[in-house]
């Protein structure tokens, strides 16, 4: 995670961060929606951008996703939930390239072997679920909406863009960016990753944490499971305290995992 | 000094101070500099040496990719500090070597202004933009406040302090970029093609400003590929393949026309006329050229009285010297390909952008639409293809109301090539890019293939079908954009600034292509700011001002009407201006020379 | 249509110190957080309406009217599914319509709408540089603030370029609205790629222009813009403290709660 700080010393990375953010917001603002159920949920083509940028610009894309989401919110109005949205998007832009470096190190993200495709799907899922976990968790902590609403819509939305749109953009853009020596590895050649074993352990923690958070969040916020160690009042809507007690440890675990990656 | 600029002898306590000591040492110097970009196959610079004296203005000319920018970037350490790559040789600013300095440390001594003004403005307010660089070097607020107003006034933007930079015109944006550099009071300012993306007014603003900067004793390096604008420089460098192949005063270099053209530089009209007449001299102005010609060809007679020439009878009498005569309404008679009937247009709640425009375009015409920014040129052109719909009035294509036509039908009548080819190129190969349109219209595969081949042949890219469009040069990308529209076989082709951002060689190539298409029967509508393109290629001019058509007629007649030119601040090409001194209208240097020879 | 919400006026709210404005955001969030009952939220709505009147921000509210309506409607509806307390008024599948669930859902909807309104007011009266200056006061590093400002500046540029690309591809017969939802997401490729590549071409020139302007000389550059603290700022801060205190008292005395019965 050190590169999230180190990148700010590099002018190109600062600019790439702003560009990732502005691209995300620029697609977010005018082309906001392909409505699935009008007013309830929509596909946002913009969600493809952080994934693409992550593979290209690494840490700059992580900050770019966070800032871009913030600008999108600025256009449509911000709320306290957007603090969670900021960090959720930071991870959404951070996890893809980090997880890729753990499970498919050295491979091009646009390789078409079955292994590369499976790795691609896996890292997108890892990024999408943690993003959804954090927003759903935050929204429910503040008892605005139950975890199970945003916690699932976001996974679906992110994955739809990541699987349908991102690969098409990546295939077109990645080789050209590599040729232009603008990949993060070229722009920040001095950066060294931690030993593989540490990063692999981090990835395992992330997956365990985010899967647990997602599962618990859904079970608790739907009232499907009322943990016996909680008081009766806590296991009723809006479930904010139950979510705080049951889901938070898993979120923490996932974040620690990301930190080790 | 660890990071700073290595000074010979004692360490300078304030390496970023305005350097007044430049009187003795040259303001800037390159000693045997060679440089290869990372991954570059061949060097971008080869053992380049040059000196810039204090207060001197040096113009650097050459084709795209010749190494002009690279040379300039050595002066503020962007090469090699920012770009990476293999660097050899030494750079000195004010006598001190820059070895190991970071780009930001040189900022206060060498100011740099780039072509893309959008990419060098970072603030939300003009005063803050000027302050930006001063903030970076840690200047006190009071000192910044003292410097902002003079810097803005120097570039003619006094009173703009609280404006939003994004709302300025191109010329104003570029002047703002210069002001933000000026505020640091550098000894040297480098301008890298500062006017390429500007309209004629913006260009004139910048060159007027460059003149004022010279008067203040600032040493200047100006990169350009139009020789004409560098006539006022003290010295010119001609760069080719990473080397300075010629160097000298303007009067020396500008008479070497073949060399200039070989290097992709647009040779000045005046020098071309003189050379064609066998006059071995340089003219620094139209006046000088006229005097030289009259001296060499005394039989031409006295200059006409100035009051005779401008318009009316004199203009009528001014016989066209080319073969083609003009006609006032070329579209009369034939069934028009495109027609606008009393078209008005405004954006919701906004003023009229088009004010009852009538326009007929006949098959095979070549129409140039000119006018200042915001005059309605592009709005007009966009109506022809249905990108905008008239508020009142109608647009007809080949006799049918456009609003009743399907996109495929419109596309077969009129195609539109945007100014920036990068606004449409996305495919993996050149072929796919061209095939995109025909595929969208569900043509048969055989037909798509035929059309692609035809379109690529037309633009001279028939051997590039499998290449990645993003690896093509700017000129090739522009031609690819034309091909991808041609593949829809429109009978009318609209081009928005087809030659902007290209060097002279590519401009010529692009325009030869357009002229060829026109000869093949495609009507051309070209939106442009570039006078010589209008003079040398168009057969009809439509002049727009504030949403109205101010003039619609022949090119020669247009250039004969001084009041029109003045009111639209459209400066004719110098050859045309020179021709007017002899009481005629010529549309190019060769034509004028032939006419003069015939009369001498 | 302007992309951002800022409205140029010289009202005293516009002139408030950026830090006070950020503090106002926080106080609104705080106040909304402590109460559940729709009636308890109405005084806040009145404060906001007054602010909208003073600042001339109504056009922005009108622009976002559907967002407000949808947020209230769907949040109310969502909680009728999850908040299953109080005797049901009508028997419906999935939805539990009781006095308590209606009040609870409506309260949540109003909360979100009020937070949205707060942000609309904030954005109507605050320039980007004021926002980043506010962030800097709160300890956000210079370069992060700069990246945010730069992103804001780039968004309209990229939107412009995206709209031009849309026009160019439309003229080549491309239809963006063809096919099902996923196909429609996929159809963004011919827009996203040119915009992306155009942005990348800009990235290098921008980084270069930045360094040529001395970017990187100092970690904490000086600031030309000065925001002096004035009497109005102190008064506003005091009023905001009072508002926050009142809402905490409402919570503490139990008036803001909803009784399940």
Plain-language structure description:
The complex is a heterotrimer of chains A (261), B (600) and C (261). Chain A is mainly alpha-helical. Chain A has helices at residues 3-6, 11-28, 48-57, 59-76, 81-103, 114-141, 147-164, 166-179, 184-187, 196-221, 240-260; strands at residues 34-37, 41-43. Chain A has one domain: Arp2/3 complex 21 kDa subunit ARPC3. Chain A is built from eleven helices and two strands, in the order ααββααααααααα. In chain A, strands 1-2 form a two-stranded antiparallel sheet. Chain A is globular and about 60 Å long. Chain A starts with a helix and ends with a helix. Helices cover 35% and strands 20% of the residues of chain B. Chain C has two domains: 12-133 and 232-253, no CATH class; 141-212, no CATH class. With 261 residues, chain C is mainly alpha-helical. The longest helix of chain C has 30 residues, at 142-171. Helices cover 70% and strands 3% of the residues of chain C. The chains are: A mainly alpha (261), B alpha/beta (600), C mainly alpha (261). At the A-C interface, helix 2, helix 3, helix 4, helix 7 and helix 8 of A face helix 2, helix 5, helix 6, helix 8 and helix 9 of C.
Give keywords.
heterotrimer; A: 261 residues; Arp2/3 complex 21 kDa subunit ARPC3; two-stranded antiparallel sheet; 11 helices; 70% helix; 3% strand; B: 600 residues; alpha/beta; 20 strands; 35% helix; globular
Topology of this protein?
The complex is a heterotrimer of chains A (261), B (600) and C (261).
Chain A: H1 3-6, H2 11-28, E1 34-37, E2 41-43, H3 48-57, H4 59-76, H5 81-103, H6 114-141, H7 147-164, H8 166-179, H9 184-187, H10 196-221, H11 240-260
Antiparallel strand pairs in A: 1-2
Chain B: E1 28-36, E2 45-52, E3 57-61, H1 68-74, H2 78-82, E4 86-93, E5 96-97, H3 103-106, E6 110-113, H4 126-136, H5 141-154, H6 170-182, E7 188-192, H7 200-215, E8 219-224, E9 235-240, E10 243-248, H8 250-253, H9 257-262, H10 269-276, H11 286-296, H12 312-317, E11 338-346, E12 352-361, E13 366-370, H13 377-384, E14 392-397, E15 400-401, H14 407-413, E16 414-417, H15 430-440, H16 445-458, H17 474-486, E17 492-496, H18 504-519, E18 523-527, H19 531-537, E19 540-545, E20 548-554, H20 555-560, H21 562-567, H22 574-581, H23 589-599
Parallel strand pairs in B: 3-8, 3-9, 6-7, 7-8, 13-18, 13-19, 16-17, 17-18
Antiparallel strand pairs in B: 1-2, 1-4, 4-5, 9-10, 11-12, 11-14, 14-15, 19-20
Helix pairs in contact in B: 4-5, 4-6, 5-6, 6-7, 10-23, 11-22, 15-16, 15-17, 16-17, 17-18
Chain C: H1 12-15, H2 18-34, H3 38-55, H4 58-63, H5 65-82, E1 88-91, E2 96-98, H6 99-125, H7 128-137, H8 142-171, H9 181-186, H10 189-212, H11 231-253
Helix pairs in contact in C: 2-6, 2-7, 2-11, 3-6, 5-6, 7-8, 8-10
